[in-house]
Automatic annotation (TrEMBL):
Subcellular location field: Cytoplasm
GO CC aspect terms: cytoplasm
Keywords associated with the record: Amino-acid biosynthesis, ATP-binding, Cytoplasm, Histidine biosynthesis, Hydrolase, Nucleotide-binding
Pfam families: PRA-PH
Species this protein is from: Nitrosomonas ureae
Keyword ATP-binding among UniProt keywords: yes
The encoding gene: hisE
Gene Ontology molecular function: any one: phosphoribosyl-ATP diphosphatase activity
Origin organism lineage: Bacteria, Pseudomonadati, Pseudomonadota, Betaproteobacteria, Nitrosomonadales
Protein name: Phosphoribosyl-ATP pyrophosphatase
Amino acid sequence: MNDITILRRLAQTIESRKLAETNSSYVAKLFHGGQDKILKKIAEESAETIMASKDGNTDQIIYETADLWFHCLILLAFHELSPDDVLKELERREGISGIQEKASRTSD
Ligand SMILES: N=c1c2ncn([C@@H]3O[C@H](COP(=O)(O)OP(=O)(O)OP(=O)(O)O)[C@@H](O)[C@H]3O)c2ncn1[C@@H]1O[C@H](COP(=O)(O)O)[C@@H](O)[C@H]1O
């Protein structure tokens, strides 16, 4: 299966790791480290995604983006949020041009 439900399944696994042992779970270890630890990983994975793009390495872009999405899911869980919250926001934006949206903000 290769659809959006992987985000929901992964979010459930991440949620279940909140109370897991830190020596057997990478996610539990990150939760244990707190927000700063999670944010540091997001910064690292963002930088690695940027480098992969600059190198034009498509396999690496996919790999690093997967790392970035994964760590963003951990951050969402840290704040008791889910991928569905983000998907809903993307749905809300669907069909609204970024140019149009920015113009409506700047005319305030
Ligand atoms: N999708 C992932 C996933 N993607 C990346 N990673 C880990 O994220 C880390 C990425 O960090 P780096 O690339 O910087 O590698 P590193 O140098 O080893 O990392 P650090 O020691 O610096 O943290 C690596 O340790 C990867 O193994 C993941 N770890 C877990 N998952 C999923 O999360 C589930 C729960 O994992 P556990 O909590 O470990 O059971 C797993 O079953 C998977 O489905």
